[in-house]
Amino acid sequence: MVQKASAALTDMLQQAIAREIQVSVQYMWQHIMAKGLESAEIADVFEDVAISEMKHAEKIAERLFYFDVIPTTKPDPIKVGGSLKEMLEADAAAEEEAIDLYKAIIKQAASEGDSTTRLLFEQILADEEAHRDHGAVRHARRVDVFDALDLPEQALEVRRAQALDLLRRRA
Asked: Considering 63, 78, 123, 170, which has the largest number of Cβ atoms within 10 A of its Cβ?
């Protein structure tokens, strides 16, 4: 038997999958672009998050299909950014939007008695919060700190390398 969900919930799930497709492409392009930028060390972080977002899209698609709804294949607008700072700002905004949407989905699913969708989005929400707190977005804070120092570019690169080396040793 196929479980039914309200149009409100399935519309929200469609928004979620469109967002997950968007950010998976966004992070993957950033992964490729970061290799040529001054911060190649973040490329692996972008790639890891892109893969995580793809897995989220797959889980949401499976849930929509269970509800007998065809998942969208159209992403939300992709905002890659040009500089590393612009990339990280776009990512921070996307993660915050996801967190807000997923909290609303959890609330809607709970109101409909749909514990499976609620639990799925509680797991995805935890991942999104980790992306915000521990992933690429965390690097945005470092970029802001370095930019605020207003050092000559060469000194900035030396400081950035020293800070990243210190972070690696602590990890």
From this structure: 63
